[in-house]
Amino acid sequence: MNSMRPERMVRLAVKNLSQYKLRAGLTMLGIIFGVCSVVAMLSVGEGANREIQEKIQKMGSQNILIKSVKVPNDENAGQSKRSFIAAYGLTYADAEELSRFVPNLVASTPIKRLRFDVQFKARRLQTDVVATVPWFLGVQSHRMMRGRFLTSADMEFGTPVCVIGTRLARILFAGYDPIGKTLQLDRDAYTVVGIVGDMAQGEVPGEDQLWLDGENQSVFIPLRTYLQKRGDLFTQWSEGGGTFEKIELYELILTIDKQENVVTAVDAVRRVLKKNHKKEDYSIIVPLELIRQARETRRLFNIVLGSIAAISLIVGGIGIMNIMLATVSERTREIGIRRALGARRRDIVLQFLMETLLLSISGGVIGLIFGALIPMAITAATGVKTVLTFSAFVLAFSVSVTVSVVFGIYPARRAAMMDPIEALRHE
Amino acid sequence: MSVPIVELKNAAKEYVNGALRVTALRDVNLRIDPGEYAVIMGASGSGKSTLLNLLGCLDHLSAGDYLLGGESVANQTDDQLSEIRSTRIGFIFQSYNLIPQLNVLENIEVPLFYQGVPESEARVKAEALAERMGLSDRLRHKPMELSGGQQQRVAIARSLVCDPILMLADEPTGNLDSKTGEEILELIDELHGEGKTIVMVTHDDDIAHRAQRVIRFRDGTMISNDWHGAPKP
């Protein structure tokens, strides 16, 4: 015997469901909420994830950042009132050794970070000074806005030039073109040769986001020039006495040729530094590891989210089962009639499953629409970044349909297993 | 001699209800030939409904054999019995048993639906039968919008749609007033006149007189089997 054609089954299901419009609508509500919440939650999660990823990516996924860290010195703990020279952190020797022993290294970028008073004409403010090398520009997310960056000639001759951040250019040089002007760094004079923007500060190089803070108000000077003028000793005056700190390198950025080689390079870095330093007066930051950690966090987040979604969809499924059981018992007589007129058990199962499927698919589609609208509303209202992914749609939809069909099987089978004689007698 | 439509051989039906065994039918031997119009009578609980269910392939025999149109159906699977019901048997019920959400035409088409008959073909057959039953102006009406007599006409049209070899009627006039009931009985007479084989359950003696043959049941046993009117063919 031929089976019924699918479109006839669908039409029959539509006809049967339209008998109970309110009930069908309420049943769909469970699926609508389930699918909608899954899609909305996933898109908010994905938005947060992308934001973190982008920030880390800007630090350079091929980079290894090593920073000097001051470790409280136990031996000198009792002599805090006396002056002494504290030497700690990364040394030029470290940099030298790292560039020899770290595999696949393409660039080693030394950085000294200091804080100075800077002055132009009568304006004076305190800001960060970054003493570094010409190739610093390519290592992180900085971009030249005007003029030029530091050059190898600057390095070689120790020329007193500087490049300034966009924010500093605006504040300190308000009303003047900074290029060619002389900037007073404490007691030393530097000529401004370029303006640099830190793109990590914002997505769009629009005003407000670009000016946020960080290196947009820094002064970049050649490392050589600084060493010639000041050396490595740093004086800090505190209550009751002064301390002299000697830090050769504040920061060292190692750039590795490929992401795959970062992990082995990090191992080499750890080995070298462990050998050279008795105390751990440095910290190693690996953006790639941060990315991995962010991924791991996201995975956990997804598990939590998935569990919530699964629960809501199961609740929706139970709702469907409940309604279908009620429908089956109300339509016992119809089932008896259909069986007497030649419907096989399979035909009855299909009839009720088709109704369940239709409910869950329509509910799923409506849920997807709301699930797409809600993140847009969230973004519009709060500015929180949300990302709608195709996989979220597919996941939410397929899971909801699968769950409903699974929960629809029991009522449908119950309908099909009825004794036709009993069913016919049912009032 | 032609092949009988119905042939029951030592047929018995028992129901097991917990520890209780109820014998609904015992040792029934019955033969109904093509074109016969037989009436089954008996008090409630006499086994006449059980017999009708067995004849309609809605139930299995506990013992004995049942040949429908010469083929044994005693050991058929559920699916096979479904197919037999949709192709060879036409049911007419006391309470019409139309499907409420379907209109007249759709109700008539239900058995064809399960046979996989193409829609257009089914529609032609259903329309012809509806017209014959005098329902031409009611084709799109739902059962609730029809009178009892009209509903029973729809049910008769539905039972005829797959051209069955056996028509089973279970007190078809039980829910109708005497005038409408008379019309329905005349319709059944007409079908008999066309050569249909009809088995009808009733407890009304007047109705029983219309048939050629009256079979009486008591306590699950066939107690009489009388021919009257036209002789047995």
From TrEMBL, chain A:
<dbReference type="InterPro" id="IPR025857">
    <property type="entry name" value="MacB_PCD"/>
</dbReference>
<dbReference type="GO" id="GO:0022857">
    <property type="term" value="F:transmembrane transporter activity"/>
</dbReference>
<dbReference type="Pfam" id="PF02687">
    <property type="entry name" value="FtsX"/>
</dbReference>
<keyword id="KW-1133">Transmembrane helix</keyword>
<feature type="transmembrane region" description="Helical">
    <location>
        <begin position="20"/>
        <end position="44"/>
    </location>
</feature>
<keyword id="KW-1003">Cell membrane</keyword>
<keyword id="KW-0067">ATP-binding</keyword>
<feature type="transmembrane region" description="Helical">
    <location>
        <begin position="300"/>
        <end position="328"/>
    </location>
</feature>
<dbReference type="GO" id="GO:0005524">
    <property type="term" value="F:ATP binding"/>
</dbReference>
<dbReference type="GO" id="GO:0005886">
    <property type="term" value="C:plasma membrane"/>
</dbReference>
<feature type="domain" description="MacB-like periplasmic core">
    <location>
        <begin position="25"/>
        <end position="271"/>
    </location>
</feature>
<comment type="similarity">
    <text>Belongs to the ABC-4 integral membrane protein family.</text>
</comment>
<keyword id="KW-0472">Membrane</keyword>
<keyword id="KW-0547">Nucleotide-binding</keyword>
<feature type="transmembrane region" description="Helical">
    <location>
        <begin position="390"/>
        <end position="410"/>
    </location>
</feature>
<dbReference type="InterPro" id="IPR050250">
    <property type="entry name" value="Macrolide_Exporter_MacB"/>
</dbReference>
<dbReference type="Pfam" id="PF12704">
    <property type="entry name" value="MacB_PCD"/>
</dbReference>
<feature type="transmembrane region" description="Helical">
    <location>
        <begin position="349"/>
        <end position="378"/>
    </location>
</feature>
<feature type="domain" description="ABC3 transporter permease C-terminal">
    <location>
        <begin position="307"/>
        <end position="419"/>
    </location>
</feature>
<dbReference type="InterPro" id="IPR003838">
    <property type="entry name" value="ABC3_permease_C"/>
</dbReference>
<protein>
    <submittedName>
        <fullName>Macrolide export ATP-binding/permease protein MacB</fullName>
    </submittedName>
</protein>
<keyword id="KW-0812">Transmembrane</keyword>
TrEMBL record, chain B:
<dbReference type="Pfam" id="PF00005">
    <property type="entry name" value="ABC_tran"/>
</dbReference>
<keyword id="KW-0067">ATP-binding</keyword>
<dbReference type="GO" id="GO:0098796">
    <property type="term" value="C:membrane protein complex"/>
</dbReference>
<dbReference type="GO" id="GO:0022857">
    <property type="term" value="F:transmembrane transporter activity"/>
</dbReference>
<dbReference type="InterPro" id="IPR003593">
    <property type="entry name" value="AAA+_ATPase"/>
</dbReference>
<protein>
    <submittedName>
        <fullName>Putative ABC transporter ATP-binding protein YknY</fullName>
    </submittedName>
</protein>
<comment type="similarity">
    <text>Belongs to the ABC transporter superfamily. Macrolide exporter (TC 3.A.1.122) family.</text>
</comment>
<keyword id="KW-0813">Transport</keyword>
<dbReference type="InterPro" id="IPR027417">
    <property type="entry name" value="P-loop_NTPase"/>
</dbReference>
<keyword id="KW-0547">Nucleotide-binding</keyword>
<dbReference type="GO" id="GO:0005524">
    <property type="term" value="F:ATP binding"/>
</dbReference>
<dbReference type="GO" id="GO:0016887">
    <property type="term" value="F:ATP hydrolysis activity"/>
</dbReference>
<dbReference type="InterPro" id="IPR003439">
    <property type="entry name" value="ABC_transporter-like_ATP-bd"/>
</dbReference>
<feature type="domain" description="ABC transporter">
    <location>
        <begin position="6"/>
        <end position="232"/>
    </location>
</feature>
<dbReference type="InterPro" id="IPR017911">
    <property type="entry name" value="MacB-like_ATP-bd"/>
</dbReference>
<dbReference type="InterPro" id="IPR017871">
    <property type="entry name" value="ABC_transporter-like_CS"/>
</dbReference>
